[in-house]
Amino acid sequence: MTSLQQVCTEARVQWDKLQDSEVPVLFVGAATCGRAAGATEVLEALRERIERDELNVLVIEVGCLGPCSFEPLVIVHKNGSPRICYGNVGPDEVVRILESHVFGDDPCARWALGKMTPGKLDGIDDFNTHPMMHRQVRNILRNCGLIDPENVHHYLARDGYRGFLKALELGPDKTLEEIKASRLRGRGGAGFPAWRKWQFCRDAPGPTKYLICNADEGDPGAFMNRSLIEGDPHAVLEGMLIAAFTLGASQGYIYCRAEYPLALQRLDVAIGQMRALGLLGRDIQGSGFCFDLSVKKGAGAFVCGEETALIASIEGRRGMPQPRPPFPAVSGLLGKPTVIQNVETLGNLPLILRNGAQSYSQYGSESSKGTKTFALAGKIKRTGLVEVPLGIKLKDIICEIGGGVPDGKALKAVQTGGPSGGCIPAEKMDLPVDYEALTQAGSIMGSGGMIVLDEDTCMVDVAKYFLSFTQAESCGKCAPCRVGTRAMLSILERIAAGEGQMADLEKLESVAQTIRDGSLCGLGQTAPNPVLTTLRYFRNEYEEHIRKGQCPAFVCSRMISYHIDRDRCSGCGACARVCPVEAISGQKKKPHAIDQETCIRCGMCLSTCPARYAAVFRRSGELTRVEPRKEVKRKSD
Amino acid sequence: MTSSRDKGLSRIADILAKHPANRGSLIPVLQDIQQDFGYLSEEAVAELERRMGISANEIYGVATFYTQFRFSPPGEHTILSCQGTACHVRGGRQILTELEQRLGVTAGRTTADGKFDLERVACIGCCALAPVVAVDGKVHAQVTAKKIPSIISRYAGEGNFS
Ligand SMILES: Cc1cc2nc3c(=O)[nH]c(=O)nc-3n(C[C@H](O)[C@H](O)[C@H](O)COP(=O)(O)O)c2cc1C
Ligand code: SF4
Ligand code: FES
Questions:
Q1: What is the reported pTM?
Q2: What is the pLDDT of residue A580?
Q3: Does B101 map to a domain?
Q4: Closest residue (by CA) to atom 8 of ligand 2?
């Protein structure tokens, strides 16, 4: 068998050749998000053209580079020209790029996001100076979107598995020291120092230890873990090797949610490659260290992201949390000491070992070291996956990297930490993003989901949304969580329906306290957070719902009515055709009207009325909201 | 000639052979059976009870805990409407309402003609392109209520060609 060293050397030669390839190379971002945006069609068009014209062009599918709102993304390597990253590339654009840039001399600057390698090109700036990129530090995501995630040689050529080899060289004790010195904290939500958990596990008696990678990513609105696994699976797996070696674990599991089929496939492929390279199994790289890995597919229960529930699920039982202590690090899977670590926490390990703890902790704030990935979504101009040093201001992420709120609307709040987190109001955008600061503001860092909310988002509705989520996902084991979330949800539903009372607000706060104090697991303990932060920062909005029966954001459907402005209506009938309950009547070319009795307030008429008429308007209590009329824009390219 | 029942049983035996014979295999086995048969039938559960030595009661206890498992045959196509946070604040609820109206079923049910399952899902990780709808695993990004009929019709006609 060829040694890993030899494979690495050969991989590096091949990689260097690819960087200077005579043959043009097109790297197409084909992660789940890229495919949803149309990467599959781009690949088809590209391959069809290549086949038809018998072109000598290499096509490589890569993971997600991060700027999802610009997907599909294509990076083009053409010898003698800087590499260019193109955004919003459809099947037509990719063929044009092939003709004009690859086999012509027009670099199609209008579609370019930036140059990825040095050199001058008129009208195209460096990709790193792009507003979405220039504040980012891409360490964990360094390979995402740049390498073929199914080709382990790409990973090896970029110093892959060097961190693990370093750990083997140091031995478990010194590796633990290194992790301790890096001050790495868990990225799955709670921010517990990784080394401490490892210490507990190592100190626990018995030779059998387990390591579990938590890839359940249950926070609805977060996709950091999916992107990392899809784009660079070996980074996570190398992290698992390092952790297992330090713990003395001989078996590892990856608990990945079933909603991520591509990530699951990537893991399978990568694990096979590890086996072939002698990075799994007995006596790994002649070190005497034995370790094997298997993937467990989640079955759709949010609570299974909680450590003890996750263990129950792997054991083939109902995913119900257990009281702690004993902590899993002492007694976990099958009663053995078990360390559970988030995908991104593990993804940090190769970095720390390769570059040293000192280099790692140069980034970050005093209490929160390193970089962290965040998933930007919601009402934000540039959505996607970003990586920044911890301690950066919230507004740098939202306003600079994300470009703020689109359509001239005002920023209202940023939701972090998902169902366990809270809403940070626009006035607090100077907040540094670190574990302590976010907790003080009433939210949590969470795993990295950031949902931006604008003036059209109703905070009562957001609170109700999260409570209905936690209420549905409560496993039902403890009464405060099971009954309490139900009670809070009905109060919120009442308020949203215009039937709330001022006393309801105190009631919400007192039930919240009961749930916090009396729940067994994190799901219950943190379930009130979204309500408490919105009450803290947006109490007036609750009061407006209760006192005036109006929803200032025009979201709570029970409080809004839809109307047609007779002067604006052209009688085109578009609204009447889409209304599901036939509540709209009127003669052709004459103003239409909505029958309030029949209307179910679905809003289809509002979204259907052509912008040049904008004749549908809304009322809520004393408020009226008229949509601006827009001239039709002609489609240009 | 073997009956379809025997064939079913031998497929279950094949699935069991792929997993270690321990309790931890229960969920992966149920997932494989659902993958193969589309749902967990009474016969399949009875067969598992016999072969794995876990009572049917216990198997149902575990399976009903997880939203992934279903106990009736699925429709021809599965439509997932994302109700995650990013999709919610970008109008995911209206998309689901529109799907319900167009298909004439509420979420969690199968259309009368057996063509479509309509289900809600709590995020499929394409939040940056919200709101999203996935049909048979293909994700449709930035969906609007207006696009729903054309998405449905793309799948509705298909059966006639086979
Ligand atoms: C209800 C609930 C859901 C959770 N979901 C996840 C999850 O999806 N992914 C994750 O890494 N951690 C999740 N956690 C946190 C884990 O229990 C655990 O703290 C984490 O995986 C530890 O890894 P870390 O220290 O590397 O962050 C969840 C916790 C709770 C209470
Ligand atoms: S707090 Fe809620 S989810 Fe957690 S164990 Fe209790 S009932 Fe289950
Ligand atoms: S919230 Fe819909 S895909 Fe994540």
A1: 0.95
A2: 84
A3: yes
A4: A475
Structural domain for B57, as ranges: 4-65
**Chain B nearest C-alpha distance from A318 (Å):** 5
Q: How many domains does chain B have?
A: 2
Question: Is CATH 1.20.1440.230 the right assignment for the domain spanning A459-547?
Answer: yes
Which pLDDT belongs to residue B106? 96
- Looking from the CA of residue A197, the nearest atom of ligand 1 is 25
The residue extents of the domains of chain A are 3-129, 161-361, 371-454, 459-547, 557-624
Instruction: Tell which B residues from 21 to 50 touch A, by Cβ distance under 8 Å.
Output: 22-28, 30-31
- Asked if A221 has any chain B CB less than 8 Å from its own CB, the reply is yes
Is residue B144 situated within a structural domain? yes
| CA-CA-CA-CA dihedral for A53, A55, A58, A61, to nearest 10 | -10
CATH architecture of A371-454: Roll (3.10)
Q: Identify the pLDDT of residue B8.
A: 86
Q: Considering only CA atoms, which of A132, A129, A160 is closest in space to residue A146?
A: A160
A507 Cβ neighbours under 8 A, 6+ residues apart? A491
Shared domain for B33 and B92, answered yes or no, is no
| CATH number of domain containing B84 | 3.40.30.10
Selecting from B31, B67, B123 the residue whose C-beta is nearest the C-beta of A220 gives B123
Using pLDDT thresholds of 50, 70 and 90, give the confidence band for residue B6: confident
Bridge partners of A377, per DSSP, are: A451
Report the C-alpha gap between A348 and A120 in whole angstroms: 34
pLDDT band for B162, please (50, 70, 90 cuts): very low
Q: Which segment of A559-563, B5-9, B61-65, B133-137 scores lowest on mean pLDDT?
A: B5-9
Is the C-beta atom of A342 inside 6 A of ligand 1? yes
Looking at the fold, whether B81 and B147 belong to one and the same domain comes out as yes
Q: Give me the sheet containing A74-77, strands edge to edge.
A: A58-62, A25-29, A74-77, A84-86, A112-115
Q: Measured between CB atoms, does A259 come within 8 Å of chain B? A: yes
Q: What is the CATH number that goes with domain A3-129? A: 3.40.30.10
Which of A217, A300, A377 is opposite residue B68, by nearest beta carbon? A300
- Check CB contact of A416 with chain B, cutoff 8 Å: no
Instruction: Judge if B106 and B151 occupy the same domain.
Output: yes
As for the ipTM of the complex, it is: 0.93
Sheet containing strand B109-110, strands side by side? B109-110, B116-121, B77-82, B133-135, B138-140
Select the residue from B65, B99, B105, B143 to test the A interface by mutation, using most A Cβ atoms within 10 A. B65
In a domain, B162, yes or no: no
CB A297 within 8 A of CB B28: yes
* pLDDT of A244: 98
A197 C-alpha to center of ligand 1: Å?
14
Ligand 3 centroid – CA B121 distance (Å): 8
CA–centroid distance, A325 to ligand 3, in Å, is: 34
Torsion sign across C-alpha atoms A504, A505, A506, A509: positive
Asked whether residue B120 is domain-assigned, the answer is yes
Structural fold of domain A161-361: Rossmann fold (3.40.50)
Are B151 and B83 within one domain? yes
Q: Could you give the CA distance from residue A543 to residue B99 in angstroms, rounded to a whole number?
A: 34
- Which residue from B23, B62, B128 is facing A377, i.e. has the nearest CB? B128
CATH topology of domain A557-624: Alpha-Beta Plaits (3.30.70)
Residues of chain A with pLDDT under 50: 635-637
* Tokens describing residue A71: 């997907």
Residue B1 has pLDDT above 60, yes or no: no
Ligand of minimum distance to the alpha carbon of A484: 2
What was the pLDDT predicted at B5? 81
